[in-house]
Amino acid sequence: MIESILPGAVTAVDTFVDPPGADLFPEEEAVVRKAVDKRRREFTTARWCARQAMRRIGIAPAPVLPGTRGEPQWPFGMVGSITHCAGYRAAVLAEQEKVTTVGIDAEPNDALANGVLEAVSLAEERDRIAVLLRDHPGVAWDRLLFSAKESVYKAWFPLTARWLDFEDANIVIDPLNGTFTAALLVTGPWVHGRRLSGFSGRWLAEQGLVVTAITVLAPVAPKTRTTGRLAAHR
Predict the structure, then answer these.
(1) Residue 39 annotated as part of some ligand binding site
(2) Most buried of the four, 16, 99, 103, 229, by CB within 10 Å?
(3) 205 a known binding residue?
(4) Where in the sequence is the domain holding 171, given as residue range(s)?
């Protein structure tokens, strides 16, 4: 499902069930040894998805351990992101030469609990959400906003190794085109020779979920053209 909102440079694997044969590397097992069953199943299936993505890309399956902020640590030369919620798990992976950063998130298509929207949003975002809820029923726009903010953080952190609060990005959702923009309200890092000021993302509401994704593609290296004269001197 999530692959429909990601570019071809990103390999995505998702599932609505926990595969019975999914297992963990010993290093990963140590992370969830004392975890409750729900946490263990989420962690295990997300790693199963990650390893399926590794196989599709053509790299050897490897452990995906959480870093200091819980972020997945990918094999050298790779970037990726993981998400899981009730009844859904997904992992995406790409070569760093093709993709600079990627962030994904999935949430149930249900309204946030009372008080949560106020805690995770700016006043102008809440105003826009109210209009979306009025004009485009059927999507939990408050939950979609939350999901978009999660994707923003997951795309931001690998570039900066810094925390990003919910109020540090102002998100505008396009209800018709399945896209959103996130304007950073803090100083962003230098990316591809320019200061990063925000992200563009895509969203999807299907099968009881709202799903968001942000991908920053790496610049394409210009092809070197060899002229006949240069070739003659070789």
Answers:
(1) yes
(2) 103
(3) no
(4) 2-217
